[in-house]
Hints:
Protein name: Heavy metal RND efflux outer membrane protein, CzcC family
Largest sheet: 4 strands, antiparallel
Family: Belongs to the outer membrane factor (OMF) (TC 1.B.17) family.
Organism: Photobacterium marinum
Number of domains: 2
Strand order of the largest sheet: 1-2-3-4
Keywords: Coiled coil, Signal
Oligomer: single chain
GO molecular function: efflux transmembrane transporter activity
Number of strands: 4
Amino acid sequence: MNIKPGLLALAVSASTMVATPLFAASHLEGNKVGQSLNVAATSEFLTRTAPLTRLIEQALNNDASRRQFFAQSQAMRETGIASSTLMDPKLKVGFGGLPVDSLRFDEDPMTNISVGLMQQFERGDTLNLQKKKANQQADGIALRIAARELEIANSMTQFWLELGYQQKAEQVLRENRRLMKEMENFLQTNYSIGKNEAQDLLNAQLQVSKLDEKLQANAQVQRRIISQLSEWLGADWIASGQHIQASNQLNWTLLDSKLQNASSTQHYSLLNLHPMVKITDTAISASQTQVEIAEQAYTPQFGVEVMYGYRQANNMKGEPASDLVSAFVTMDIPLFTGNRQDRNHAAAQYQVGAAKSQKDVLLAQMNAKVNALLVDKSNLEQRLQRYQNTLLEQSRARTKAVERGYQNNTAQFNDVINAASDELSLELEQQRLITDLNIVKSNLAALLGGFEYSAVSPDASTLTNNQYSSAR
């Protein structure tokens, strides 16, 4: 008898016991999946990249964190304009020379009612430098939008890959449950006429029940992944019941082209383009501007005061006393700079050094992470080649041999299960490796700029409208 469909079905229940991470459960696509690196499979996952890109772009346009960073950036720019403006002039109103015995304004010629205006000026070029620093800090906050986009793209890509893995597993489980049910009916017929043992029938029934359990666990994992995607796509997206046909393999053309031109162990030229590194550059620039602001403290600070005094009394000749006009220029002289200006200037210089060290640390960490991911990528690719060229071929040959032995009554039914189980376990492991390889590439893309998507910049008017609607 031909029992190949039964072998596949019987093996699934054992093969799906392979330990996997949180998202990993049973998965198999059959022998065609074992050829997933060929041209036909490539065209398949090329077509499945577009839906993911659309979901990422939708998530980016809906992301509140991007709007938050944009609003903070705009707020910092507005603060910079405010800080670069001269202080408001001060109005001074009062009287002077009023005799205390009579308290009359027209008795003593020295008595006057004064109105004055005072204006203080900042030291040197401090105002322009403060605006420059605020804009540099605003640029750093704006770069967090791009960093957030990479974070979302990476997270959603990994969820997509895991969901694709689970969906392939579900297809295989359902197909093999159907085959197992046919095998159960076949064994039931043979058992009724005495051609099969009861233990073979009971074993087949047990495998069907196990497959039902695996299908329920698989559905649970898929629902969990979709629920996690709602962080960016919204709860309404879950309620709409949209079905996602995901894939555990994606097109990484942009990433591969960047890796071909990259150095073997030093990837600083690419990492310098990462938003997080650019943020440290803006921090360095802002710190250097602070040094310039501290240097302005060595220049004098000027102020201007103009007073007009109105007099009601007559002078000594009996004539109306003339009104008075006074003008003053104030200037502080920074003579004792040892404990103030010098210390502030030194502190600003230390901040520049700290910002540069922070960038060096970040680049070293990111470069080490890239090298570690490249090691994983290389090993996963080698392991996939071994699965495709050696392990799966040997496992299929062994399964066919045991099948022939069972047909010739030289092998037991458990031998059939074990052989087919090993074959499907290897195919599952291969698909897990394919998924893990694509997850590694996703992490590399987040570091080296290998994602391809477009997002609309947050709109200031939208933020204002949201603010007003919240206030109401």
